[in-house]
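Protein: ABC transporter permease
Species: Methylobacterium terricola
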Amino acid sequence: MAGSTLASPTAEAAPAPAPAASGRDTWRRFRRHRLAVVSVGVLGFLVLAVLVGGWVWPVAIDEIDFAATLQGPSWAHPLGTDDLGQDLLARMIYGGRISLAVGFAAMVVATFVGVVVGALAGMSRRFLDPFLMWLTDLFLSLPQLPLLLLIIYLFRDQLKQLFGVEGGVFVMIVAVIGGLRWMPVARLVRAQFLSLREKEFVEAARSQGATAWHLVTRHILPNAIGPVIVAATIEVSSAIIAESTLSFLGLGFPPDIPTWGRLLYDAKDHLDVAPHWALFPGAAIFLTVLSINFIGDGLRDALDPRRVL
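Structure follows.
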């Protein structure tokens, strides 16, 4: 009896390193996706460039030089200039901060709303689940671009008065894009909750008197977070494309705020004489979205517990 008593603490303490091992296994699976690893480097470079590029290339984004209009890449202007002689590298660095901030902020909004709606639907056993799924299907059936345009026209002026020109447009675009992209996350979270809430470990916790909040935060949501992270990466790329589309249509940020989509909009009338003006912001959007999608693929493979190490 004494031997078994002494051995029990050791037996209980042995599984303690499991989370670290799980993290190492996840990283090992992620590294096998070569495109995802390369995409992490590409996205990290783009984020670092827009964050610290202003100190490395301290050129004003509104500095006009009519003697250098529509010039191609050179030592003085590595990415060329626009029709006012403004430096495109400086404008892309500034605009990249806004484009990426919109993408990540809209992702946070969409993921938060989707997780809340999906969790409520997944834990409900009566009328709330059908109602929330009906609401989700209703939002999925709405045409997003016309709805985006309608909301922008209705609320743009009020938000500009509350938060200023740039802040109002940012809040509006993030809220609208995030508010119209939560449905796939909600469906995914609901499916995960419906599966996990019947598992043995959840039933054991429920039999011990665990509240619904405790079950969700401690047992179900942590086990469903993998697919949610993958879905969140997709939402970032979707939000960046949506912001670029609105800016290209002239309905996003004002003309003096050079987001990547706005740069494409301004370049559309000069494609024959200055293709570089559209090429560089287009390439930045393409690389950002492609990198995020590959990272999402890598995370999906790495967080899938059914995959063999």
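Remarks: DSSP finds twelve helices and no strands in the chain.
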